[in-house]
Amino acid sequence: MKQFVQRISLKRRTTALNETDTYKYIRHRLDIAEYKGPELFSKKAMNLIWQHSEGIPRRINILCDNILLNAFGMNNKKIQAIQVAEAINDLSFGQSNDGGKPHLRLTGSKS
Asked: Roughly what angle, to the nearest 10 degrees, separates helices 57-73 and 19-32?
């Protein structure tokens, strides 16, 4: 690891985004991808993304990428909280070996 760190000449650290900035960040990324359709994520889905990414841009990107791939495969036009929960569980963000967080389960809600 020491040799790897020696090769990095520029180091930057980003801070976690708050809830509002996380939503803006996701919309910005969709704008960059030239998404022109209707609102893609439900409010509950966006909230779960923020909660489980902890506002960390890299985690937001990884989580949203997996959510969108799954949605495409299932031909879903709108991302609901249940799809976010499935992606979180698939990526082990919700498992107890990731910072002690419990395995995420959503019941009865599709939004």
From this structure: 60
Q: How many angstroms separate the CA atoms of 21 and 69, rounded?
A: 23
Q: How far apart are CA 16 and CA 56, in angstroms?
A: 5
pLDDT in tens, 73-101: 999 999 999 999 999 988 875 455 545 45
Core vs surface per residue 4-21: b (16+ CB within 10 A) or e: eeeeeeeeeeeeebeeee
Burial class (CB in 10 A: 0-12, 13-18, 19+), 2: exposed
